[in-house]
Amino acid sequence: MKAFRRLAVATTASTLLLIAWGGVVRATGSGDGCPDWPRCFGSWIPRLEYHTLIEYLHRALGVLSGLLALALAVLAVVLVLRARRSGDRLPIPRTAAWLAIALAPLFAIQGALGGWVVLSDLDPRVVTVHFAAAFVALALTVAITTLAYLGDRRAGDPGYAHLAAWTVAATYALLLIGTYVRAEGAGLAFRDWPLMGGTLAPSLAVSGAAEMFLHRGLALVVVALILWLAVRGRTMQPRSRVLVTLSSLAAVAVVVQVILGGINVITELAQVPRAAHVAVSAVVWAAVVALAVAARRRPQLPGGRPDAERDLADTPAPPASLRDAAGAYLALTKPRIIVLLLITTVPAMILAARSIPSIALIVATLVGGTLAAASANAINMYLDRDIDEVMRRTRQRPLPAHAVTPEHALRFGFVLGAVSFALLAVTVNVLSAILALAALAFYVFVYTMWLKRTTDQNIVIGGAAGAAPVLVGWAAVTGSLAWPAVVLFAMVFVWTPPHFWALAMRVRDDYAAAGVPMMPVVRGDDETRRQIFLYSLVLFGVTLLLVPVASMGPVYLATALVLGGVFVFRALTLWRSPTNDRAWRLFTYSITYLAALFAAVAVDALI
Q1: Could you give the residue ranges of the DSSP H alpha helices within 356-482?
Q2: What is the pLDDT of residues 196-250, one digit of tens each?
């Protein structure tokens, strides 16, 4: 069993390296470094030339991988025959054994395809078939390795397993299209990124444009699917460490892959990013295949027992009526929080334009921003459903109240995010869409999934997501960012901690019961009040910084001085004479403060 596992790991590593080196061959233009096959310039010993050595090493890795696959197949046959003769149980999963036996002829076919690539003078269609077979071989080696370590018992979460299977299919399609794009030399069909000819809906008449458009569109789908798997993997009950690890690896790898795709365009297909793009694509593929195989297994409880019961929170009673259902989904978006966020968007747009922008632009920006915030809030409720069930003030939210299933809430959040990005990109501009999507991702992955449950500085850093609407508004008008937008962002960023900590002091017992390390729970009320006062002083200074940076006039200056002075005074009073009522009054005043301050920004810009 140990020998089979080790050999499977070695075969997987060799195959992964083979595909990665194939990317080096393509990036360096060394595909014809050996113009004949199977020998190189009529000899088994390669010439000491740059392209020849690169191509020959690729062939050598192919031979090594084939030999490892053959050894794995032979070992599998030996184990199967031995088990049949002795009547004992097969020491490796039966599925892994049959896949290992099928792997050897696949590598033989792959070697023949490699020869066909050379003899066809690197025909794009043949190159695509060659890479397609290589990724199938990698998928088999990964599946064999995963089964060897985890077993092949099929009792996992069916919904998660189906989602993982669809992700594998979409990823494979993306890999094939990407391979064809490289083989056709269409990687620079569009020389701007993430745009395509200055737009998201380009003309497809240019050679290679259709393939590249399909490649980028499918890439967005794959990214969304992998992120969905990562989010669900971290919140499954019981939680599977294997699924969390594999889905996180896939998520990180696919994000790196997207960045490399942009670098490829920016550097006009420089060798290093081109080769890295292929290598990381193989890592993404290996991770999603391993995830799909592992998802078919029943998650294990900490004591090693398989989970025997479904999470009751995942099987709620359906809403009583269409109206109740609509109300539940609306509640998922936290509409009151959205209103607070959008208060800052329009003034930022007015300041950027120094006039009132077109109504169509304002409406498109607000609708897109609303959908982005609603998406973030819905996914946040999905991730925090265990906390919400414990805290008294959140027990009536849709998920703890069993008005919406967790799966539907997560799907709702992802759909809203996709619609938000598409709407902003098409009707406003791509920069505003990217900023809104970045804020959504930051709120979900950085704040909700990481900071909120690990540090008392969670709301300090997480406040960046709530400050993003001013950047979206500014970018919507100008198509760029500038220092006034940065100061507006800083104002909301610094305002968030004292605003939220004032509320947290009132509900500290709820946070303590839920195990959330908010400032009042971890450091106590005295330190929280001191921090609120210190942040109020910083906030006062930051709001005044906007005067020279954005050339603000007396209306804004007077408003900032008065409102900021009152904020500091209330924070000082709370520090010296602490009561829950004063904390609550500071919280409610902070909302009025933010709205009035940004209203002054708009009025001052107009006059």
Answers
A1: 359-383, 385-390, 406-427, 430-441, 458-478
A2: 777 776 777 677 788 888 888 899 899 999 998 998 888 777 778 899 999 999 9
Sign of CA dihedral 400, 405, 407, 412: negative
Q: What are phi and psi of 196, to 5 degrees?
A: -135, 100
- Report which DSSP code applies to 333: T
Helices H, strands E: what count in the chain?
A: 22, 0
Q: Which of 422, 416, 449, 445 is nearest to 434 (CA)?
A: 422
Q: How does DSSP classify residue 455?
A: -
What sign results for the dihedral spanned by CA atoms 182, 229, 460, 440?
A: positive
Q: How many Å apart are CA 459 and CA 448, to the nearest integer?
A: 10
Q: CB count, 10 Å around CB of 318?
A: 11
Amino acid at 309: E
Percent helix, strand and coil across the chain, each to the nearest 5: 75, 0, 25
Whether 475 and 429 have beta carbons less than 8 Å apart is answered as: yes
Q: What are the tokens at 543? A: 């709001």
Say how many Å lie between the first and final Cα of the chain, rounded: 79
- Confidence check: pLDDT of 607 > 70: yes
Counting Cβ atoms within 10 Å, is residue 243 exposed (0-12), middle (13-18) or buried (19+)?
buried
Which residues are within 8 A (CB) of 548 and not within 5 positions of it... i.e. 6 or more apart? none
DSSP string computed for 221-275: HHHHHHHHHHHHHHH-SSPPHHHHHHHHHHHHHHHHHHHHHHHHHHTTS-HHHHH
Torsion angle of alpha carbons 413, 418, 423, 424, nearest 10°? 90
For the stretch 307-361, pLDDT in tens is 433 443 444 455 557 888 888 899 999 888 888 777 899 999 999 999 999 999 9
Residues 6+ away with beta carbon under 8 Å from 307: 237, 238, 298, 299, 300, 301
Q: Which amino acid is at 585?
A: R
Mean pLDDT score of the chain: 87
Q: Helix, strand or coil for residue 42?
A: coil
> Which residue in 473, 442, 496, 430 sits closest to 344, CA to CA?
473
DSSP line for 178-230: HHHHHHHT-TTSS-SSSSBTTBSS--S-STTHHHHHHHHHHHHHHHHHHHHHH
CB under 8 Å to 450, separation ≥6 — which residues? none
pTM exceeds cut of 0.85: no
Query: Average pLDDT for residues 174-201, to the nearest whole number?
Result: 78
Continuous segment of H or E residues that includes residue 513: helix 508-514
Amino acid at 582: R
Nearest residue to 225 via CA among 166, 162, 293: 166
Residue 83 token pair:
């088990």
Count CB-CB contacts under 10 A for residue 201: 10
Contacts of 342 (CB under 8 A, 6+ apart): 366, 369, 370, 373, 469
DSSP string of 420-445, one letter each residue: HHHHHHHHT-HHHHHHHHHHHHIIII
